[in-house]
Input
Amino acid sequence: MKLHDSLDHAVADVSADLPALVSGSRRQGLSLRRRRRALASVGTATAVALVAVGAYALLPGSDGPDSTGTDVATQPHPTLSGEAAPITPAGVAVALEEAVAAVASGTSDRFQGDVSEGDAMAALLFHPLGSTDPAGQVMVNLQPLESVEGPPYRCEAFMTRCHVRKLSDGDTLRTYHDDGDSEFGAASKRAIAEVLSPRRDLRVVVFALNTNPWAGGEYQTEPVLAVPGLTEIATQPWWSLSTLPVEYVEAGHDLDLYQG
Output
């Protein structure tokens, strides 16, 4: 199966149908600040470097500098203990939220997550700080490496502004754009960062869009995250199909996933 087909298959139920993948509804009044305090209680106030790579990621100004900072206020990120816990849908959503907050300023909502059939994924809507445009969707998808052809991993015809490089740990990083998605319209823009890791038998795909399934054809000028930020998220060493840092799993206990 070609990579493009594999990605289409991987996210076939993501977008307007993604809510069907997740269970529960988002608890009214649950704020990002509350979860940040829960996370901060586990570790120190030292910032965690979080990295993102995705198969369908659109970032604003992919050719320019990425925004940096945290969302809401300057809430510190905890130092992760190094302990792991079994992966959960809400845990993946919290991990994605923290990763996004580490590389871009804004707010997140409509958290979704799913762990099933050997894959895991999470999605959220991200509102860049100061923007009055609709939020863009950000998603992470964790898959077995067999879901993609290769190696060697190369740019494919549909990938624009594509770059492939080998990382020092042996993983491969592939970043690219795939605009004009049929699901989101000709004006849609998608930036993608993808990590292919033979040593972990893992494919990590992180994407950002300039729109979302609920936006009704409205768009940001660019995706809500840029390739450098997506790359930071995707290259985190703790992404796994079976476990996550215990801090994210425990914080997920306070998060009821959105279903709409």
Notes: The two ends are 32 Å apart (CA to CA). The chain has one domain: 3-254.
